[in-house]
């Protein structure tokens, strides 16, 4: 890793709690420089603006998260356990850090404004990875999609849409972890009810 990459990574690590504490709008480059233990001038050598820094942070977080998702889906265990680990990684890295902020909605909106392409590409990759895991499980007769009359890609899209809905429900006081686990239990029931030996 180049020294400049390490420095940028350290800045992005320091910036995350600042954004969580103050929200996007109220966070200043001076706040981030202070948290990173560098001067504003040094910060501007790495990132020309708060928007550029936020986008770089989103790109870094999404790339790291998708590596964790891929590892979870490639691991051992049944498809449901692997999907649960993959969803947990996605939520832990991309949702949970912001969800506790009083400015969570603003931060998620800022992300969709500044890094929509990154976010949508990661979601599309998540759908593709989940679809592949479901298709492999279906080919091994570990699950059945017959009763649902859905393809692995259709179901993967619904899983990701449900995760989005569960994230939005947090604002109304719902519990992210509990609601996700409930959804995944429903998924397991739907896909194994008619499976051989179920």
UniProtKB/TrEMBL annotation:
<feature type="domain" description="HTH tetR-type">
    <location>
        <begin position="5"/>
        <end position="65"/>
    </location>
</feature>
<dbReference type="InterPro" id="IPR009057">
    <property type="entry name" value="Homeodomain-like_sf"/>
</dbReference>
<keyword id="KW-0805">Transcription regulation</keyword>
<protein>
    <submittedName>
        <fullName>AcrR family transcriptional regulator</fullName>
    </submittedName>
</protein>
<keyword id="KW-0238">DNA-binding</keyword>
<keyword id="KW-0804">Transcription</keyword>
<dbReference type="InterPro" id="IPR001647">
    <property type="entry name" value="HTH_TetR"/>
</dbReference>
<feature type="DNA-binding region" description="H-T-H motif">
    <location>
        <begin position="28"/>
        <end position="47"/>
    </location>
</feature>
<dbReference type="Pfam" id="PF00440">
    <property type="entry name" value="TetR_N"/>
</dbReference>
């Amino acid at each position: 890793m180049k020294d400049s990459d390490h420095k940028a990574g350290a800045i992005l690590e320091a910036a995350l709690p600042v954004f969580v504490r103050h929200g996007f709008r109220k966070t200043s480059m001076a706040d981030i420089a202070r948290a990173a233990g560098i001067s504003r001038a040094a910060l501007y050598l790495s990132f020309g603006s708060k928007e550029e820094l936020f986008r770089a942070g989103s790109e870094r977080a999404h790339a790291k998260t998708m590596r964790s998702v891929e590892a979870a889906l490639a691991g051992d265990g049944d498809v449901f356990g692997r999907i649960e680990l993959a969803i947990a990684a996605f939520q832990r890295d991309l949702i949970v850090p912001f969800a506790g902020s009083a400015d969570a909605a603003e931060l998620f909106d800022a992300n969709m404004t500044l890094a929509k392409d990154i976010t949508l590409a990661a979601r599309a990759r998540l759908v593709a990875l989940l679809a592949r895991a479901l298709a492999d499980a279906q080919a091994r007769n570990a699950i059945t999609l017959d009763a649902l009359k859905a393809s692995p890609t259709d179901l993967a899209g619904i899983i990701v849409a449900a995760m989005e809905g569960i994230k939005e429900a947090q604002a109304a006081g719902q519990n992210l972890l509990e609601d996700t686990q409930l959804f995944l239990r429903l998924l397991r029931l739907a896909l194994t009810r008619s499976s051989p030996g179920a």
